[in-house]
Structures are given as structure tokens and as C-alpha cells.
Amino acid sequence: MLARLGAARTGGLVALALALALLPLVLVNRYLYDVAILVGLNAIVCVGLNLLIGYAGQISLGHAGFFALGGYGSAILAVRYGWPTLAALPVSVCGVTLLAFLVGRPILRLKGHYLAMATLGLGVIITVVLTTEDRFTGGPDGMSVPPLALLGRALGGERAWYWLVGALLIACVWLALNLVESPRGRALRALHGSEVAAEMIGIDSARHKLAVFVLSAGLAAAAGALTAHYSGFITPSQGGFLRSIELVTMVVFGGMASIFGAVVGAAVLTTLPQLLTTLKDYEMVVFGAVMMFTMIFMPRGIVPTVAALFKRRTRQ
Amino acid sequence: MSLLRAEGLSKEFGGVHAVQALEFAIEPGAVFSIIGPNGAGKTTLLNLITGIYRPNAGRIWLEERELTGHAPHRFAAAGIGRTFQNLQIFFNMSALENVMAGRYLHERCSLAAAMLRLPSLARAERACREEALELLELVGLERFADDGSDGMPYGALKRLEIARALAARPRLLLLDEPAAGLNPTETQEINRLIRQLAARGVTVVLVEHNMSLVMGVSDRVLVLDYGRKLAEGDAESVRRDPRVIEAYLGAEVHDA
Known about the structure:
With 316 residues, chain A is mainly alpha-helical.
């Protein structure tokens, strides 16, 4: 079985790489490139968030907060303190990771709804701070962010960004796939399955929850910082509650405890609103209907459901 | 020296004394059974000696190490494994993965090593899988290996929990009502399994209502009533103890 799993893993990774390599053939204009890049950045957040929610079973309704903080941190260091962007970005990500480590300790003692409320509160606090500290953040209007620059040369153009984000996404997916198929990944799934049973086989549940929380926050911060530098602008709404819900929805829609599900969820729910803009006022109605349909008929999410169907076919 | 020792162990829940001033020692290599009427404090006692509950008073040692007040995973790391009366299977994993998860203590790796899938880890994973398959075979579940655990029958899940606990290679294995809800054939299999484990040198603590199973496999029996020790001794002497007969065994003694 593990051999088959290994094959599925490599196969999925190759398929993803091929899709990313061939996608530019249909990306005929800058707008489509732009959508693809945003898909990739959201997918990186969702891969991390799925490790936390889908594998370890710990909800977070505040991950947009980490996403925004990553962006603001990098922007503030670059704009207000004149740091080179290539230094500002990693320092910002490390800072957010440290913050996640500090707040994660007390928060992750909570379970279920209480954890949801606490992470929601965390996200709200982050947005409030970003809105009110206008000396640094520019307040509710947001601030402009310089482009990523390497040795004085700015990383410009959608094409360059596309390949950068694509490569990072593949790396994240590969690392995440390795993690979930390792003893540590089993430990995460074990504490999702039964925390008391996990403890009784020697798994320190508090330590594992904290590690995956910090990891997912770090990925969100990295994607947030890249998004800010790419789009050249950032506002507090990037860290808002609605954005957090959007990220969780991508994970659930794509499939809990499925790394490729996180990518598919991010792809569908990032592109769908763009396609629906032609419907104008009815956009949100269609969006909501798609969500309800999925939750009722595919509660496990798209990728696991389709994978199960495929498996049944091949067995017959 | 005894493997596990408890001194003055007490636990109360809102004024109710679930376990009261309990003293006992479990010798290595023995099958030690804990019996008593419903509500006598058997499961509370198991939860105390696995760290799930903290005692209000008293101390617990595993050989020379005092474990009182530690988290459950520290008890597990010290060599105590258990199964649960109401199943605690990882239903989000296959049967084989459940057992592989049980190997956690012997397959530690850093987050970085896991994410980069270093060659040493890949080798360890193959060994882990082999050993998990052997354990599934030991409990007679090899045909379920690749199945999702959520589709397995109840009796098989009971044995899957035993295989998972064994995967951690515990020195002391606590079985909380392993035969509850099983038919006579399945109970026979549990009986056989416990004897096999004892023969392998695993010390077994058995909490069980099925008297013929208890009397058949136990080297020593501890009888609880209202959280206190009513009697302790070998199966035969406990069976004949008038206090035990009065409190608990009643007619069943004559049947046996």
C-alpha cells in the first residue's frame, strides 16, 4: 500500500508540475497570469492551513491575520526603515513565526469551538492593530509596497512572478507530502483521531499542535509577504475575518487532510469569483450555492471524493 | 523489584471518592487483573496509572521512576501502554497506519528530517511498516491492513487497539475490558492473545467483567469496591474470599 501511496504522491507531484509548466500556454494575457499567481499564493497558505485543520484537526479562523502581518512586516521594514526587500521579507516571516509560537502556546490548550473563538479573536486583534497604527501601516487605506528586488533589479512582470510562485508551490507541496507520510505526520493525524490515544502512544500533543500551528502561520506569512510585494499594495482587509473564512473554505472545499485538495480548493475558489464578476450582483449568490452544494454532496471535499470514485472504478 | 507501584492513591470527583488510599504493586511478567462491580473505580484507576487523571493524593512509580503528576505521554514514554474501554481508534487512518502510529516513540524524527524525507527516515519507515504488519498478524488482522479502520468490525477494532499499544513495545500493557461486547469465540482469541503476550514477557494489567477470562489468565487479582481495595491475591484465593463473593461474584462463583 505504501508503495502505491508513494506512487500516487510522485504522480500527483509530477501532474502538478506539468500543469504549472503547461498553464502559460493558455495564459494569454496579463490578467490571466495575475489570477494564476494569486491562485499559487493562496494555495501555499492552504497547504499549511490544511496541515493544521485537515491533518492535526485544529481549527484556525485567524490565519489571514498571519498572512497580513507577513505582508505588513515586510512592507514596513522596506518602506519606513529602508531595508532591502530581500532582507525585509524573511525577517518579517520569522517575526510572524515567533509571534505564532508565543500566542500558540496558550491558545492551543483550547479545543473545538473555544479554539475557533480564540483564533478568530486573534485575527480581529491583528486587523484592529493594522488599522489603528496608521503611523506605520497607513491605516484603513493601506500602504504601497515596493517590488521584490534582487541586487537592485526589481522582480517585475507577471511571467517572472508566475515561475517564482509556481516553484515555491511545488516545493511546499513536496515538503507537506513528505511530512504527512512521516512519523510526525502520523502523530498529527493521530491527535486528530483521538488525542487521549495519541498521548498514550507517547505523542506530546501540545508540542505537535504548536509545531504545526507555527509552521502553518509561517507559510501564511510568507505567502502574505509575497502577495504584498507582488501586488504592490496592502490593506488591513487582507487580514480580516472574511479573508480567514475564505482560506478555511478553500481547505474544506478542496478536501480536509488532502495536500492536493488544498491546491485545488485554492484554485477553484480564487478563480470562481473572477469568472462570476460578469454576473455582477448575483456573484455571491452563485458562490454561496456552489459552497452549499459541495458541503451537502461532497462533505469530504472535492479531491478525496473524486479520488474515492476513481479508486472504486479501478477496482471493478 | 515490582514494575509498577502505587502508594496511597486517591482520586475524588466533586466529593465522590472514586479511588481511595489504594496501595498495590505489580510484579514483572505477571497478568494482574483488576475486578469489581460497576462504579468500583477500575477505569479511574487505569486513568490514574496512565497519567490521564492526576491523583488528589498518592504516588506512582514505574520501577525506580516516579511518574506522579506527569502528562500521559510521559507515562507512555516510561513504558506504559493501554487500550480503552470505549474504543479510541484513529478512524482517520488505515489499520496499518494505526499500528505504525503506535511506533511513534521508537521512530522519532525532527520536523526538518520529516519534510525532507531523508534516506535514513525512508529506511526507518520500511522497518516500521514491516513491524506493524507483524503485529497485525499477531492479533489476526493482517487481512485488514490496507482498509480504512472506520469500516472494520467491532471485535477487530478491539484487537487493533491491542496491536497499536504493542507497537510502542510497552513493559506494562493495560487492557480496559478487552472482551466487552465480544462473542465467546472472540473472547477466546483475546484469552489466547493475553497468554501469548505474557509468554513474551509483557506484563499485562487486565480490567475485565468476564470472570472466566479473568480467572483463567490471571496470576494475581485485585478486587475493588467503592474505590477501596477489597481483596488481593491469586485467582483461587480471591475466588474463595467470602467478602469478594458477597460484594461481587455472587452466583457466578458457583457457575465457574
